[in-house]
Amino acid sequence: MSKYHNKITYVDGIKFDSQKEASYYCYLRQMERDGKIRDLRLQVEYELLPKITGEKIKQLKTKTKVVPFTKQAAVVYRADFVYVDCATGLEEVIDVKGRKTKEYILKKKMMLALLGIEIIEV
Fold first, then answer.
1. Long-range CB contacts (< 8 A, 24+ apart) of 71-76?
2. Phi, then psi, of 29 in degrees rounded to 5
3. What string of DSSP letters covers the chain?
4. Mean pLDDT in residue range 23-51
5. Which has the closest alpha carbon to 79: 94, 63, 59, 100?
6. Which residues on neighbouring strands pair with residue 119, listed in sequence order?
7. CA geometry: angle at 16 spanning 23 and 111, to 5°?
8. 84 vs 35: CA distance, rounded Å
9. Which of 50, 57, 84, 112 has a 20 to 30 Å separation from 32 between CA atoms?
10. 116: which residues sit within 8 A by CB, 6+ positions away?
């Protein structure tokens, strides 16, 4: 059993983290066929903060070498669905939520503050 009691579901050969997300995908595919939305994309990543790198000095047998390394990984938000609404021409970012984690709430605020993108929750 998963942490949030969701059930992995497959639709059109695509793995979804929950039945709710898979169901919403089917709804969006129908909207796309009806011409109400276009350019439906799944699992779109937005970089909120870049990775932080540094350099280490590594002593080899015959020489000293400067080696880059990652101090901290980038902070990334991954949207469940992104599409263009044909009526407005605007790009919509959708997140299908069962529970709002503290991490999600923070990333949602960062998306709006840093990128000016508002996440629509379903």
1. 74/47, 74/48, 74/49, 74/50, 75/47, 75/48, 75/49, 75/107, 75/110, 76/45, 76/46, 76/47, 76/48
2. -60, -40
3. --TT----EEETTEEESSHHHHHHHHHHHHHHHTTSEEEEEEEEEEEEE--EEEEEEEE-SS-EEEEEEEEEPPEEEEEEEEEEETTT--EEEEE--SS--HHHHHHHHHIIIII--PEEE-
4. 98
5. 94
6. 93
7. 95
8. 11
9. 112
10. none
Residue in 69, 67, 73, 68 with CA at minimum distance from that of residue 51: 73
CA distance 35 to 83: 12
* Whether the predicted pLDDT of 32 surpasses 70: yes
Structure tokens at 85: 């609404």
Residue 81: both structure tokens together: 């669905």
- Backbone torsions φ then ψ of 52, nearest 5 degrees: -110, 125
Average pLDDT for residues 8-35, to the nearest whole number?
A: 96
The pTM of the full predicted model, rounded to 2 decimals, is 0.85
Handedness of CA 9, 19, 6, 73 (dihedral sign): positive
